[in-house]
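User: Predict the structure for this protein chain, please.
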Amino acid sequence: MILGELFQRHDTVNRDFNGDDLEGLIPRGSIGHRVHFFDTIDSTNIYASVLAGDGAPEGEVVLADCQTAGRGRLRERKWYSPPGKNLYTSIILRPDISPAFAPGLTLVAGVAIAELLGGYCPVSLKWPNDVLAGGRKISGILTEMKSKGSKIDFVVVGIGINVNMEPDDFQEELRLLSTSLKEQTSKNASRLELTTGLYRLLEKWYRIFIDRGFVPVRDRWLECSGMVGKTIEVADRGTLQRGICQGIDDEGVLLLLDKENRTLSIWSGDITIQKDR
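Assistant: Here is the predicted structure, written as structure tokens:
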């Protein structure tokens, strides 16, 4: 399908956004083969975690038109989730990998989203879980894991994409920080077709990750990233580090060259990319 065909007239954008239509478009056994759709839910991640705990198989997804308690990566942050505008979904995965490698799934999702949205407008990846367009956040990822000893029980990958938001739809404090596909392209997009495209690309990159390891994901992530070579600040638990981003290593850890010419491994933190002067 030509990507331009995904754009629809405004009065038809939301008519086909439902679980029944989605399930008919997803191959059996692939991500999205069973959809739990809600007009309104507190959080797709919360519900997906309950399903996974009850034994739901890999590839089942939760999808909602609206969230009342969407969450960001940091606990105090919420994901603004109004109805009729965006894409909010959580995917259940059960990878046979060590829990130590689970953070790579956030970067797998980032690559899939970047390939999806990159067909509409220029985007870049910001470590560890943001997708940017025009320097502002257009998508975020929240990955949560439950493990039993040295084995993963399940991973839930939550994804939010700002699709048809107008600038005035954003909360005032978010307008300079966030953007949407519509704001970047001046067109509405079909959320149904965006969702099927997302699941298809997630399936592609998840299988690459499982079959070939993280290195192909890392290489593609670096191609999509807007961070390498940029000056960044990393805030983490009351500390602030500053340096030049050197990329990510074979485990997805951020590499930072500090002012003393040391390469530091950054495992977590809130990243700010400094503007070029």
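The helical segments are 19-23, 44-53, 104-117, 181-185, 191-212, 215-224.
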